[in-house]
Amino acid sequence: MKRMGLAALVAGAAAMASPASAADTIKIGSSLAITGPASFLGDPEAKTLELYVKKINEAGGVNGKQLELVVYDDGANANKARTFATRLVEDDGIVAMIGGSSTGATMAMIPVFEDAGIPFISLAGAVVIVDPVKPFVFKTPHTDKMACEKIFEDMKAKGIAKVGMISGTGGFGKSMHGQCLGVAGNYGIEIVADETYGPKDSDMTPQLTNIKSAPGLQAVVNPGFGQGPAIVTRNFKQLGFDVPLYQSHGVASKSFIELAGDAAEGVRLPASALLVAEKLPDSDPQKAVVTGYKAAYEEATGQPVSTFGGHAYDGLMMLVEAMQRAGSEDPQAIRDELEKTSGFMGTAGVVNMSPSDHLGLDLTAFRMLEIRDGDWVLAD
After folding, report:
1. Could you tell me which of 260, 258, 184, 256 has the C-alpha nearest to residue 221?
2. Where are the alpha helices (DSSP H) in the chain?
3. Torsion 120-125-127-128 (CA) sign
4. Which domains are delineated in the chain?
5. Does the keyword field hold Iron-sulfur (predicted)?
């Protein structure tokens, strides 16, 4: 378990300000996969929250009070996540929550925050988090359903109709697999092969061999995150496929390219503009936000930016704006203002929430990217 309080975050400012009493702080919580197999999600999320809570406090805090961040490391374990969620509510007394690196951890925590009436901004991908809408639950990343739609939109534009799927069996992979099957027909896509792999599988050659033999195969899509998609990508190249490979936004970090190596060349995937921040035209209204966050994160951490840290940035900034509009740290008031979020420009795109939409992103927020020469570029 990892827990970080305000003192650790604002040590640099401590000499300039007297210690804040409990009445002068606003407690927000987080439970993230900081270590373990999903640390590529949780580590940049935690670093982002630490960085920007410090910046906000040094700038005067929120409504005249300092933010106090309480973070636990659940390692993407659903049982641990639920335990920490309960602790954040009952022992730590938080007024809002940003976290849930994985879909499984998020779904385990939702009942805790719904029962407590605490606004919860999830950083996980599956559409089931916000569909159906739950009163106190919001999320920042594009959904798995949107990823399917963006991928199939790109395929349709290229005349691709016969597609093979190889999906992870974890929470995100399983959910995206179902979403892709559900929307494929809307784009004239026929799934001609459908294979899966487990979280501990180290070789997907048998499944990919079956896919390669499917009649008329024109492309392959891999719903999943973690190390699995990198193994799929390497095996895909080893088998000499001559069709495009599409991955999900669950691999939108530099670590995927490093794990997949040369095999990542040409892989296409939907992701946020953050991965191509400097390559956006100056006229792009999102450029200032993504280049600003990228520069701040990379300077503070010495690590390349990922979309996952960007999800935490969006969640924190929307929460702060909601608290400012509410003029209160009352959880119900914060929830009500979060639901009114409109025209918020984040790293994921423009967010317009409503009582029937607790994500607030549309398909235009996704960019189709391709990996070329070991880096991300806007796809042709």
Report:
1. 184
2. 6-9, 39-58, 78-90, 103-116, 144-157, 171-183, 205-212, 228-238, 254-260, 287-301, 307-326, 331-339
3. negative
4. 6-142+289-364 (3.40.50.2300), 144-271 (3.40.50.2300)
5. no
pLDDT of residue 18: 34
CA distance 217 to 162: 5
What's the pLDDT score for residue 32? 98
For the segment 139-150, the average pLDDT, to the nearest whole number, is 95
Helix axes 171-183, 144-157, angle to 10 degrees: 50
CA dist 7 and 251 (Å) reads 33
The DSSP string of 226-274 is TTHHHHHHHHHHHTT--S-EEE-GGG-SHHHHHHHGGGGTT-EEEE-GG
Share of the chain above pLDDT 70, in %: 94
Kindly state the average pLDDT of the residues 103-131: 96
Q: How far, in Å, are 63, 86, 262 from residue 334 at the CA level?
A: 13, 20, 46
How far apart (Å, rounded) are the C-alpha atoms in residues 26 and 43? Answer: 23
Tokens coding 238? 């080893």
Which DSSP state fits 10? S
Q: Are 337 and 325 in contact (CB under 8 A)?
A: yes
Residue type present at position 333:
A
